Amino acid sequence: MADFTHLNEQERARMVDISDKTDTLRTARARSGITVSEEAYARIEEGTNKKGSVLAVAQVAGITGAKKTSDWIPMCHPLMLSGVDIHFEWEQQEQDAYHLSITSEVKVKGNTGVEMEALTAATAAALTVYDMCKSTGKDMTIGPTYLLDKTGGKSGNYHRES
Amino acid sequence: MADFTHLNEQERARMVDISDKTDTLRTARARSGITVSEEAYARIEEGTNKKGSVLAVAQVAGITGAKKTSDWIPMCHPLMLSGVDIHFEWEQQEQDAYHLSITSEVKVKGNTGVEMEALTAATAAALTVYDMCKSTGKDMTIGPTYLLDKTGGKSGNYHRES
Amino acid sequence: MADFTHLNEQERARMVDISDKTDTLRTARARSGITVSEEAYARIEEGTNKKGSVLAVAQVAGITGAKKTSDWIPMCHPLMLSGVDIHFEWEQQEQDAYHLSITSEVKVKGNTGVEMEALTAATAAALTVYDMCKSTGKDMTIGPTYLLDKTGGKSGNYHRES
Amino acid sequence: MADFTHLNEQERARMVDISDKTDTLRTARARSGITVSEEAYARIEEGTNKKGSVLAVAQVAGITGAKKTSDWIPMCHPLMLSGVDIHFEWEQQEQDAYHLSITSEVKVKGNTGVEMEALTAATAAALTVYDMCKSTGKDMTIGPTYLLDKTGGKSGNYHRES
Amino acid sequence: MADFTHLNEQERARMVDISDKTDTLRTARARSGITVSEEAYARIEEGTNKKGSVLAVAQVAGITGAKKTSDWIPMCHPLMLSGVDIHFEWEQQEQDAYHLSITSEVKVKGNTGVEMEALTAATAAALTVYDMCKSTGKDMTIGPTYLLDKTGGKSGNYHRES
Amino acid sequence: MADFTHLNEQERARMVDISDKTDTLRTARARSGITVSEEAYARIEEGTNKKGSVLAVAQVAGITGAKKTSDWIPMCHPLMLSGVDIHFEWEQQEQDAYHLSITSEVKVKGNTGVEMEALTAATAAALTVYDMCKSTGKDMTIGPTYLLDKTGGKSGNYHRES
């Protein structure tokens, strides 16, 4: 019996070791969004969507999504989030297109950052808006989704230049 | 003891009843993507990313994400997906920016469509690429994310006009 | 080598075989509730609870709870629910105690009933109300929780005599 | 392009920030229960329930339920529980009705309390008893469910006056 | 802008399409096991294990594990299991080593087999025995784990030759 | 109304209290494996398995499995793992049987060990290999699965004597 195969190191994936990183307060804010039709916009604002109150449900989806991030992103470390907040803001883009800007804010006291949790929260909220509005048309577009800023941790602060 | 409050109907959310819809073959394809730096692109293609093989992990994340869609999107019906496939394609955008186009394809025999599962699969793959590459810079942008097409069901086929 | 121990049959638990039951439309309605203080009631109705819109979040919790029933109740069969709906109604009980009555309604086309899903939905909504209001006092009481009625399946219809 | 809509602040839900709360030992005990028929009671005690050993399964459901609390209650913080224990006690109520009293006890070293985990544990155990006994009749009633006491944290100790 | 990279087809993973397979009754039985010390054996049989009734908990873990198979095995299709049963049998191996044989049996009416569900159920039960007994020594060995037989589906019946 | 039944203490299961254990760095390594046919071996190594790159997917399954351990093993404490790594190595056993040895390595800073996480990671990887290769024959055998070593914690270090 002899070892005769050595796996290609390129094929390796790992959840990298963070046990020597220190517990500090870390925050991250991310942004996503969704562009919807005038009809979808009106139903959201008037509360006449047949699946219910779109933004209330999307907000819950964003918060619960943040908590499930390490279940969705395979190499992401589990974290005990200390706070999650989701904000919405409408922007009219053209005559008949409306963009819902979604901003998430996540905090943790832990030894790795919460960038992925913030991105996942904003994304889950956007997907939920799509789901609740898709009976009015499937031409909606989600994104762009990106990190706004982060604080804490050895890599220091980050602020996206828009 | 008297009832005296009636909840505002606007506030209601529900998982709408689909019990009278028929079981048919349904498919959906969605697209997401992520724009990364030249360094991130090179590490992905050369297999030198420290967290491992980025696209292999992202593909698994997309497939498992599709299966968890009804856990992520509150008003989404649970479905027993019969197939999920994820494709990647690189497009050079500028001198030093590379866009990874992510296409998901989902099938089911069931009584509601799989648009959300396709969108979720593509999104989970994109978020996973972000996670695995973020040590090379956090300026990546995810999206746009949208439905390419769907077939089956009472509402008929849909094909996005690009 | 000899077999010498036979497990006590009493200790056995199983997810009973339902493969010979037929797929039919099945419904169930359950009720739970929570008795809260006047302050908690006022904050819910005025929308001044610091954790947010209590009933909107509780409704989402009830619906997502119904979908997770087989993950919570060990011997419960997984089911693809076709619809879930949650209703709230306030009843004043005494000068300073308010009871929120929570009614869930669940539908499925499947080979086992949805009684547990209805009970779980109503319960998850009640627990969520407790969570969101507990900063105003922990004396709230949840329940009673019971099945209102069910239809479909071999065991026939059930309607609770109040 | 101008911002023109401002979401109603009432509609906001958030997982409140607890990052400035200190890690201390916290405990909570909660009680739920279920009233069952004489037949159900007899089958539980004699171990002749067709789904298996009711209280053994309910105890596991209570413990695993406690660990999943932040997945069930949307605004609940994830916590690494350090201990969960579930106790059962029968009380005869009338000639042919038996009440199973379910007491849960949860401990954590963390920066928020475990009241919801204790309530969820007791509730999950009660729902499991219902599930395993429902073939003997659906007239069972779950509850009342309430917090018995808690210790630790800034808000101090709580002990319910019965 | 030009496509210039084509992913290596070898790197592809997919949840293969089973939408053209027919719904039939399918069963599978698998076996795992664990070899434990005399002390662990005695504590299990005498009910003196400090974590509780080992086999009762392991049985629940096996059943709930079967239901979560598609969450654990990335390319596994979600299935609505119609029945799961777990059996234990002790075999004395040597003077001071005891082997607990664990047999799982899973049924489904569906369009793909339940081999993985049966293997996962038996495995989850074995891991749970390890967890509950590990304070008495960590030299336990799990396995071998294999499929005993399967019925139903296009690939026909299988029976392992021992 | 009188208490008249006292549950058999033997039947009790609990998630034992670890709140007085100290947070230290803890590691564990476990081993599992799977014996496959020459055809399965060849398809894995040549990348011609129809479900995709077997070892890449198995590695992801092992890592995500480690993170879900407390969801799979009922009395297992939730832990925030700081690192997970999975290694594969082939050993030829006979002319036409190949054994894939799977070694997992898990780290945590916490108040209980990660033996179960390491065992679960190795097992999930082995089950995933079975799933992806089972179309080439179902005679594969998983195991033996055991703990290689652990460090940290009050019970001290452990190293299995092979």
From TrEMBL, chains A, B, C, D, E, F:
Pathway: Cofactor biosynthesis; molybdopterin biosynthesis. Substrate binds at residues 75-77, 116-117. Keywords: Lyase, Molybdenum cofactor biosynthesis. Gene3D superfamilies: Molybdopterin cofactor biosynthesis C (MoaC) domain. Residues 15-153 form the Molybdopterin cofactor biosynthesis C (MoaC) domain. SUPFAM superfamilies: Molybdenum cofactor biosynthesis protein C, MoaC (SSF55040). One of its GO terms (molecular function) is cyclic pyranopterin monophosphate synthase activity. It catalyses: (8S)-3',8-cyclo-7,8-dihydroguanosine 5'-triphosphate = cyclic pyranopterin phosphate + diphosphate. The active site is at residue 131. Its EC number is 4.6.1.17. Pfam families: MoaC (PF01967). Homohexamer; trimer of dimers. Belongs to the MoaC family. Catalyzes the conversion of (8S)-3',8-cyclo-7,8-dihydroguanosine 5'-triphosphate to cyclic pyranopterin monophosphate (cPMP). This is Cyclic pyranopterin monophosphate synthase.
